[in-house]
Design a protein that fits this description.
This protein has about 150 residues and is mainly beta. The protein has one helix at about 140-145; strands spanning about 10, 30-35, 50-60, 70, 80, 90-105, 105-110, 120-125. Bound molecules: S-adenosylmethionine.
Length: about 150
């Protein structure tokens, strides 16, 4: 194993988790900045060519975990690894953001769902070769179908 070392932090408009959109149909359009520490900035070379990025980050304001829990998107409980709950054994978040522009170590992005000051562990270019028609969305599709 290794000791995770943040490569930067998120400047987000969300100071309070209650302000972050949740539940079925929630859209994440919030803009902010991924501020990468100067010592890691050379690692951003060539990132501008990618429209979207995976951001891997820490739920630093989450304590403990629940193996079974009820997400805000459903009235039924599910296993933590079938959800995006912040209360997980390893408190790691994953968000896909749109890269708007880069200014040195500052990546201006859209699509944030994390709190201001959230530590960033890693960034990778978004890519998927899985055709949309082969994706199954499990309980989430069922919850959407039940929605009045
Ligand atoms: C449902 S999680 C999904 C996060 C990410 N997209 C994922 O799938 O890992 C998003 C929620 O995590 C919580 N959250 C955001 N930033 C956090 C932080 N730094 N520490 C603890 N909880 C946080 C907020 O309640 C937010 O609505």
């Amino acid at each position: 194993m290794f000791t995770p070392q943040p490569i930067g932090s998120v400047f987000s408009p969300y100071k309070d988790a209650a302000a972050i959109p949740k539940g079925l149909g929630a859209e994440h359009q919030a803009e902010g900045v991924l501020n990468i520490l100067p010592e890691f900035e050379p690692g951003l070379a060539d990132i501008e060519g990618f429209s979207h990025l995976f951001v891997i980050w820490v739920f630093d304001r989450s304590n403990g975990f629940d193996l079974i829990g009820k997400p805000p998107t459903d009235s039924m409980a599910h296993g933590v690894f079938a959800t995006r709950s912040p209360r997980r054994p390893n408190p790691i978040g994953l968000t896909v953001v749109e890269l708007l522009r880069r200014e040195g170590g500052a990546l201006h992005v859209r699509g944030l769902d994390m709190l201001d000051g959230t530590p960033i562990l890693d960034i990778k270019p978004y890519m998927s070769s899985i055709p949309a028609e082969t994706l199954r969305r499990g309980w989430l599709a069922e919850a959407e179908a039940r929605k009045p």
